[in-house]
Amino acid sequence: MNTKKLCCGIDVSADTLDICYQTPDGNKAHLKVKNNKTGFAQILKTCQGNYHFVMEATGVYHLALVFFLYEKKVAFSVVNALQIKRYIQMHLERNKSDKKDAKRICEYGIERELELYEMPDIAYFECRSLNNAIQDLTKEITKFTNRIHSLKKAPYDNKIIIKSYTIVIENLKKEKEKLEQELENKLKEWQPDLLQQVQSVKGIGKKAAAEIIIYTKAFKGMENYKQLISYAGLCPVEYSSGSSIKGRTKICKQGGKQLRHILYMGALNAKENNAACKALFDRLVANGKNKKSAVIAVCNKLLKQVFGCIKNQSLYQDNYLKNIA
Questions:
Q1: If DSSP codes are grouped into helix, strand and coil, which group holds residue 285?
Q2: 239: part of which helix (H) or strand (E)?
């Protein structure tokens, strides 16, 4: 009886799935199916036995397959799209097609020991979708606001356009408020204690708390604060080689762009109102560090405080050390 784990690489697009799977004799075969339950069932019918399915994360297009495979209790992994992209580039691939991508995904799964996908709660997906919609509306509000600003500078009459844009902005703001309230209600139902603990840190507002909880999937698998900082793309990276290349140390930025932006705005508040963050900021500036770098350090400090509250299952106390003394 053959118990060897076989790999099936899946390249996901909006309407179709390209499949490259290992056959028991060691060869690879290709299959193209619809991105729906009929197509999913066809995949399982074709790949019967001890298979491990591998796909890359593609926004929402892969989620229906994820839910289907999870329901059928088969082994599968979802890989960061950037990892797959770099793997394909490493092979100096000149041409790109869905069929070739599926083949490379299959090879990636064969060569590496991939972790099985841990299915988040359904509330996570609902909260993430709401949060993404809020970000989209925020961008639209900014876009129309900027257009009004430019129209006012024009040397001709744009009053009717400005009035129309103003109405659009007002409607967008109303819809945004509705979604923000719905997101807050969902978070309170899903992670009430976690939400309270994160928001207790001075400098972490409602938006930052929601972003942190959603982006980390409610701190699932988070073992230390360094992982949290890495998730946000705030960990320092060195760029040097030999004696000729001495790059300046920067943050990696491989993580949540929106989370970094919200944390930065929160850090501007925390350096004034959070005692530990204020002390850190003042000390760094006094030692010659530029203010922007000091604010980034405050961002990391905020995440450390957040993780401390989560780990100890307690609310943040700004004067904790004073109480001990």
A1: helix
A2: none
Distance between CA atoms of residues 229 and 319, nearest Å = 24
Helix, strand or coil, per DSSP, at residue 9: strand
- d(C-alpha 302, C-alpha 225), whole Å: 10
Alpha helix (H) residue ranges in the chain: 37-46, 63-72, 81-90, 98-111, 122-152, 159-190, 192-199, 206-215, 225-231, 257-273, 275-286, 291-312, 320-324
- Please provide residue 250's backbone torsions phi and psi, each rounded to the nearest 5 degrees: -130, 175
Q: Structure tokens of 13?
A: 């697009």
DSSP for 11-76, please give it. Answer: EE-SSEEEEEEE-TTS-EEEEEEESSHHHHHHHHHHS-SSEEEEEE--TTTTHHHHHHHHHHT-EE
**CATH code for the structural domain at 6-111:** 3.30.420.10
Average pLDDT per consecutive 10 residues, the chain (325 residues; last block may be shorter)? 77 94 90 95 92 91 94 94 90 87 94 90 94 95 96 93 97 97 96 94 91 90 85 75 68 78 90 91 92 91 92 82 41
Domain boundaries, the chain: 6-111, 121-190, 192-325
Task: Report whether 9 contacts 102 (CB < 8 A).
Answer: yes
In 3D space, the residue among 88, 103, 109, 110 whose CA is nearest the CA of residue 30 turns out to be 103
Q: How far is CA 294 from CA 243, 281, 298, in A?
A: 28, 5, 6
Amino acid identity of 74?
A: V
Tell me the whole-structure pTM to 2 decimals. Answer: 0.84
**In b/e form, how buried is each residue of 269-303, taking b as 16+ CB within 10 angstroms?**
bbbeebebbbebbeebeeeeeeeeebbbbbbbbbb
